[in-house]
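To: structure desk
From: M.T.
Subject: fold request, one chain
Message: Could you run this one when you get a chance? Sequence is below, nothing fancy, just the single chain.
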Amino acid sequence: MRADFTFGEPVNLGPTVNSPQNDAGWSISADGLSVYFISDREGGYGLEDIWLSTRATTKDPWGPPENLGPVINTALYEGTVSISPDGRELYFDRGQVVEGPPWHYTSEIWVAKRADKNAAWGEPEKLDLAVPEGFTEGFTMLATSSLSGDGLELYLDAWRFGDEPQAQLHVAKRETTEAPWGKPTSLGPVVNNWSSQGFPVISPDGLLLLFGDCWVGPSRPGGYGSADVWFTRRATKDAAWSEPVNLGPPISTAFYDIPGAPSIDGSTLHFASMRPGGQGSGDMWQAPILPLVDFDRDGKVALGDLTLLVESWGTDDPECDIGAMPWGDGVVDAADLEVLMDQWGQEVHYLYDPRRAGGPKPSDQSTPDVEQASPLHWVPGRYSTQHDVYIGTDPVRVAEADLSDTTGILRGRQEGNEYALPAVLPNQTLYWRIDEFGTDALLIKGQVWSFSVADYLIVDDMESPDPAWQRWWDGWADPNYGGSWVDDGFTMVHTGEKSMYLSYDNNDVPISQTERSWETPQDWTRKGVDTLTLWLHGSPDNAAEPLQVRLVDSASNAVVITHPDPAVLLSDGWQQWSIPLATVTKVDLTAIQSMALVIGDATTKEGGTGELYIDDIRLSPVSR
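Reply: Done. Structure tokens follow.
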């Protein structure tokens, strides 16, 4: 079932609410005056706490957050929250990391209650929820609950760790708001059609369910980044859920995006994201939800759109079902006419049209290497079935080309969303466009994207949609790696949008290090490259410590290269470190298994602390 809506530009909630740490998992009250969220900011009671920010009216800015206190928060993780419509119940997770073996996370769902929305919260109680079928063995947990508008459905995810990790969406139901919850049941194979989906959020009307890719397993195909936001909808509360659809830009991006709840009137989506432009590693954002009222796609709301709505009157035509909420209610009626009339006579230009192709790879205006530049890949526009591919070296000609083109810019119409370039050359700039052809036989023209092919090979440019800590192992994940801690860096970048931030603390251990391993050994001699380079940015406030690169090959041979400047960590600007590969001996350069950055001297008992940014690790130059 379609749900034709899009979004305006997302807005960060700002520094009053968001912190330099991670802020997410939020739920807004029905009156829009209170927002409950989780954060690992300073001033909490445990690893992650629940906080509250309020405002006098929906026109006012949010006030400074307050911790909910020790009645709710403990020394453990207090997770994703959901406030009931009457403000009298607060559902949340409470869990902890179990080091193992094997390593896993455990969590249960709790509820706190109060007499009215102005009263203090009572002592939380753990919900007596039976473990769903298929999740009774091994290391399992229940988490991230979301309460429906009538208070009778509780959506949650069940996780299972082990050799085959899984996260699936479930719902528990009760007859009345005073009755006990029943056993959680799966949302079924249409929704749970991938190994890992989680973080469910039900809309106020109960007809739209948002969820996200879950880190317990790989993200589902067809997305834009490391973790996307998806939706499924139903015509009525008794109907089946539809096939999941990606929300697309600007909600789903190349970065880690986490679903949140729509506002009570359906006009605004609240969500969390690790995208650039925030205050910390993860922030709370909101974006206006816009129904697609230009049914005939002529750029204005006029008689043609009204005619199509009248022709669909009384049916469940998804194209015209745009009210009362933007995702519709299963029938074309007066609610949809009211939405259309609200925009009557206006010109319509959607900033993000979900019917257009998106998520280009290589990304727009990027600099991939010769191995990353092909094949081209894109996320199909919503409900498209075929794709017209245009490629060339002239942006104007690519923008103006159509199906009559005979110059070679048009590469044909195809069903797949991937195209292999016949040849890719260093220092070449290409422009490309994808037009979408859908089931309604209308053509949706795409935007022109571009990329320039680098004359080097990329080891890690830190632009991966996956967070740095998923690629580079640090001391937080393994104490053998010392006092190191890595994350994405957004404020100090050499090129692109991200670097890797590395915090080191050698007060209690002699060294700090972070290491990246490759499942398939890397050939660092291919394409004629002869130099390893990386860019570093330190700080005058850092402790001066030795900096080393350690390489290990597939036979476990290792070599350590020490930076020639003992004060390089004190540099207050980007410094290039070039290592001629001809000087790297003792390892097989055709089979590099891992690369580590090591700070400190293993022969000393203690050292100092500091912060380092790393970017653009490359092999150069490409000669063939």
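Reply (cont.): The domain at 360-452 is CATH 2.60.40.10 (Immunoglobulin-like). Let me know if you need anything else for the meeting.
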